[in-house]
Amino acid sequence: MPKLKVSLLTGRTVDQGVGKEHGKLSEEYQESVAICHMDPEDIKSLGIRENENVKIITNFGSVVLRLVKSPTAPHPKIVFIPYGPWASLVMNPETHGTGMPSLKGIPAEIEPALEERVSSMLDLLEEHYKRE
Amino acid sequence: MPVVSQVTCPVCGSFCDDIEVIVKNNVITDVRNACAIGAAKFLDYANHRSVKPLVRKNGELVEASLDEAIRKSAEILIDATYPILYGWSSTSCEAIRVGLELAEEVGGVIDNTSTICHGPSILSIQDVGISSCTLGQLRHRADLIVYWGCNPWSSHPRHVERYTTFSNGRFQKSTWRAYVSRLGGILSKKRLRRAVNLVLRRDVFATPEISRELPYTMFKKKRKMVVVDVRKTHSADVADYFLQVEPNKDYELLQAFRMLIADEELDVDRVAGVPVETLDEIADVMIGCKLGVIFFGLGLTMTEGKLRNIDAAISLVRDLNRRTKFLIMPMRGHFNVAGANVVFTWQTGYPFAVDFSQGYPQYNPGETSVIDILCRDETDAALVVASDPVAHFPKKAAQNLVKNPLIVIDPQTTPTSLMADVVFPSTFVGIETEGTAYRMDHVPLPLKKIVEPPSNCLSDVEILQRILHEVRRLGSKRK
Ligand code: SF4
After folding, report:
1. Cβ(B437) to ligand 1 under 6 A?
2. By CB distance 3.0 to 4.6 Å, which of B176, B251, B256, B325 could disulfide with B305?
3. Ligand 1 pocket residue status of B256, Cβ below 6 Å
4. Closest Cα to atom 2, ligand 1: which residue?
5. Alpha carbon of A35: minimum distance to chain B alpha carbons (Å)
6. Local structure of residue B58 (DSSP, 8 states)
């Protein structure tokens, strides 16, 4: 399966901002944050199309997201995920003594995940944060 | 129709104070002047709110009386040896003050969201100082505006319009018109490209390489805007010049600028992927401006180097002040995150990550900051106010947060409140409750009450005061 080594960024988008005001459990919110923006050339090299699913893997975890063509390309080998519970699954918690985890510029691998589903907010909570 | 004017928008650090809200029968029907995010806040806040306190029983969150929820919270906090009190940047300064009192009472750690936002900037400012100002000054006087590692167009949508490039100041005029005409050109080029691609079925224009050449507008006397970032954001589209830096190379770029400004030679061809000639030209523009400003965002604080990047940025501004006038300001995220730092500092001497476990305030980010405490798995309970750490903390930290007893005070249902043991639906500050908050430039402004809250919802201040009272009552009984 084709794989691509990329640098991962997280950040805000207007959609994420608006989505969050609709409520964290709303569809708008999930639609706006359970996605990743990728350079069109990189998408081609993975042999997939927009709106298909990809899996992002870092040293800290993995997450399946819907692929969106980046509105701000070109930025080869840089993948952007809006802040949210999905992005948090692959972030680096190391703070290097500053209190601040590393939320940008994280080395990652990305691969097509056509068979896999993007988990809904409730599934995600159930799967990763379930209390005993 | 009753219009409430001069309303402040309780969303982002721009904290716009010119919003007009139209209210009919205690319902907000329309909002003027706000951006999409602000408007969504005022118009949709009521749709997803909870109104009843909840307490977890047999694994399920069930409705409970306020008294029961207060008692349960007080017990959780008293029983804990090292509780965390986290959030605070989306509530009023008045609530933060009570929160600090509560933290001291229970001997916990109190931290605000700046810990995962501009925490490194604060550390750096404590090290090297900062030359800053209010946004009003920049609106009237700044002729060179640099956004470094931030994307105001998306995160602070009205920042550019109200305070910088597109604002009409007394001495500097908006460059909106010039942008609109430039945009016309860009759009028609895009349309042409699409048409050609369709007809010829191949990309004759190919993906445009980002041009390094400075456009003529950068050499004009009028106001100009530069965006420095690793990818071309929407803010970069608005800018006169976009400087693309390689990921994690901001520090090198900042230091290179410092050398160029000190008229020193760089014996490399490129720094952070940018040719030195380009840097030289930009350095000249910086020196040549009348009043410049750097706004910096998480693109600097979260990447490699963290606080050292900010050291370099502030030092660059200090160097520039030998040649012209230059200022620098962090782009604060939440509407009252600056207020959280201010109130924390009044009360304890420290802006965030304050540990009361020894009975007096201690501050050592990296040790007393929530992410570190959670990753080391040292805490045994938490109170979260107006924040959603389960959605935004790295997985390991969030997992350790939710495995302990958790109290959440938030008007909305969030991933964090779904995992909690006690949930208080509070009122929306700035919509249903008044208060005070600090804009990103540390100007305090009032939060207004526009509509009445649902009858059984209390404000953050009242809920915290009642928990504090109950903690004191139960605590003295146990002694
Ligand atoms: S820019 Fe920020 S403060 Fe201003 S209206 Fe938009 S969300 Fe509200």
Report:
1. no
2. B251
3. no
4. B12
5. 15
6. T
Burial class (CB in 10 A: 0-12, 13-18, 19+), B161: middle
Q: How many CA atoms lie within 13 A of A98 on its CB side?
A: 28
Q: Which of residues 7-26 of A touch B (CB under 8 A)?
A: 7, 9, 11-14, 17-18, 21-26
Q: pLDDT for B360-400, tens place per residue?
A: 999 999 999 999 999 999 999 999 999 999 999 999 999 99
Mutate which of B17, B20, B158, B163 for ligand 1 pocket (most atoms within 8 A of beta carbon): B158
Distance CA B242, CA B228 (A): 6
ipTM attached to this prediction: 0.89
Contacts of B189 (CB under 8 A, 6+ apart): none
Give the DSSP H/E element, type plus range, for residue B389: helix B389-392
Q: What is the CB-side half-sphere exposure of residue A21 using CA atoms within 13 A?
A: 21
* Radius of gyration for the alpha carbons in chain B, expressed in angstroms and rounded: 25
DSSP-derived pairing of the beta strands B444-447 and B435-438:
antiparallel
Burial class (CB in 10 A: 0-12, 13-18, 19+), B20: middle
Residue B206 has pLDDT above 70, yes or no: no
**Does ligand 1 lie within 6 Å of residue B37's CB atom?**
yes
pLDDT digits (tens, 9 = 90+) for A76-132: 888 999 988 999 999 988 888 888 887 777 899 999 998 899 999 999 998 898 876
Using a 6 Å cutoff on CB, does residue B449 contact ligand 1? no
CA distance B424 to B52: 7
Cα angle B183, B328, B242; round to 5 = 30
Which of A32, A100, A125 is best to mutate for the B interface (most B CBs within 10 A)? A100
* pTM of the predicted model as reported, rounded to 2 decimal places: 0.90
Give the residues across from B273 on adjacent strands: none
Check if the beta carbon of residue B397 is closer than 8 Å to that of residue B374. yes
Contact at 8 Å (CB) between B247 and B230? yes
- Separate counts of helices (H) and strands (E) for chain B: 19, 21
pLDDT of residue B465: 97
- To test the contact with chain A by mutation, choose from B203, B372, B403, B406 the residue with the greatest count of A C-beta atoms within 10 A, namely B372
Render pLDDT for B1-39 as a digit per residue (tens, 0 to 9). 789 999 999 999 999 999 999 999 999 999 999 999 999
Name the closest-CA residue to atom 3, ligand 1: B15
